[in-house]
Amino acid sequence: xxxxTPARPENRLAHETSPYLLQHAHNPVDWYPWGEEAFARARTxxxxxxxxxxxxxxxxxxxxxxxxxxxEEVAALLxxxxxxxxxxxxxxxxxxxxxLAVTQAMSGHAGWPMTVxxxxxxxxxxxxxxxxxxDGDRGAPIGLLSLLRSISEIWRLHRGRILDEAxxxxxxxxxxxxxxxxxxxxxxxxTERLVAEIDARAxxxxxxxxxxxxxxxxxxxxxxxxxxVRTGDEHATDxxxxxxxAMADGGIYDQVGGGFHRYSTDQRWLVPxxxxxxxxxxxxxxxxxxxxxxxxxxxFAEVARDVINFVERDLxxxxxxxxxxxDADSDVPGGGHxxxxxxxxxxxxxxxALAPELGAPxxxxxxDALGVTEHGCFEGRxxxxxxxVVDEGLAALFVRARPLLLAVRTRRPAPARDDxxxxxxxxxxxxxxxxxxxxxxEPEYGDRAARVARVVLDRxxxxxxxxxxxxxxxxxxxxxxxxxxxSLVQGLLDxxxxxxxxxxxxxxxSLERVIAEHFEDGxxxxxxxxxxxxxxxxxxxxxxxxxxxxSGNSIHALNLLRxxxxxxxxxxxxxxxxxxxxxxxxxxxxxxxxxELFPALEWAHASPIEILAVADELAALRPLLGPVRxxxxxxxxxxxxxxxxxxxxxxxxxxxxxRGPHRGQPTVYVCRGGTCQLPATSSDDVRRALAAAAAT
Length: 696
What we know:
four-stranded mixed sheet; five-stranded mixed sheet; Glutaredoxin; single chain; 19 strands; alpha+beta
């Protein structure tokens, strides 16, 4: 974990668990964590609050810390005129989300580090993102020192006006964030608008959506593929396929060690912002698996396996869970830090690593195919790409080269890890591993998913069954948000379908009950981000935007509809439909804003296929499930069961009752809309049964 200058005395952040806050524990700034102690002092001393929000693997957060928060001149101004609060956005997404919207409204852009000035009552005065220390640095018209002096002077001389304006702005924000009234259930025709909006922004040459910077999440692969399968729209598949392959072949993908970086700074997916996060990679595993099932192309399965290997190698923790991510920066020879140095290469470094094994001629061929030049593409160094590794000979060379390069790179100082465990992100990874176990016929992935799920369920829950947001060094803390609970439910659903412990069905019901009791909007439908008994903030938001992560509402709308089909529970279905209705206006007016809600919309209008696979032992089902693995069936529920567990499972899943192995053989039952196919005891029988059910 990267840290601040250790020679200085510790400040209050030294007692926190967040790696980001601990990075600032030796700043000369008199930091407070977010909380009543800071607010009370602000009220007592009648000082405005300086709020700084970031996260541990953020490059520009490090830049601002080293330029400004390590500077005594800045620290002195903050101590004299402000109460300084530092927030890890990954620990407090509720706080971050509110002031991110404030920053967007006040400055026209938002991101991290985020800099917000507040009244002691937490209403915003001024907001921006990164500020250099001095006016004119990095081309900025105003630096942090000038901004601090200006805000303190305005606070001293024009307090009444500032408070009135802040109150007015807070009222506007509350009105803007107020949930909209529900609509009728949106119809599937609305997906045509989503696809048209994506198509209008599509980058025909490089894939993805314009403009740069380009984020993997900006391409709603899941929505595109479901629309394509339902309608036969091959162009929708092509949009998703082209974007994913461009990313997987580009510099945004770590061609040596696997895994996706956070985003591309350019249109070509060439130079990334080099941090890697667990949630990005878990989500992209799911996209790769679905593309593999839709297209049948082995490249997507290869990427899914490669990303899983990266996560296991670089993000796994001794307790079995996964940490949050790796930094963009690393130490460099001669001292200091540099973004991307760990991942980039000079031609001479590459030749030294490869030529002894591959030979000089083949090394030269490979470097040319990987886009390597003497001048490089980033800080004089090369980001490796592979769009030109097209023939079998070059592909074989690349396979031989990767472990050689990884061995050399492993000897470099590695980027720091943010080693906190986030419940929701681990839930997304449980989902990715469970789905990979099924789609790729890799039971080991299912074992890993079960391991992670047990860590969260056993070590990150309160006495009443709620999920904590974070855990570090076995210390779980902070109330879990909607997305933590919903993502864990999603992961458990996928783990059950992959043949997980039937006891997980009870955990599903328990977690969903927590969401219903503490997060649901009983009046208008949908769900709030923070629990009903959580800290009172500027407003209580109901997430209606899918950003780098899907919103908790998009996740849980689909959970409810899947659980309704699994448990034959009409109340769950009605609540899922109410969630879709709660955001009907967003889907109609801004479909790309909640593109991850469209998979739930597909479910709402579908008649799900029910699949039961039963045998004396689960391993005997693997040959039979080949047709289920190879076919993309986005609106189906699957139960894998040992015959001796059927009665236990039937207490929650009534439609499995009475369906054991047919004539003692491993058997698959396929039903839809009350109509069942004949029991299938061969993979050909299963394939025919699925085709017949899909046609009904």
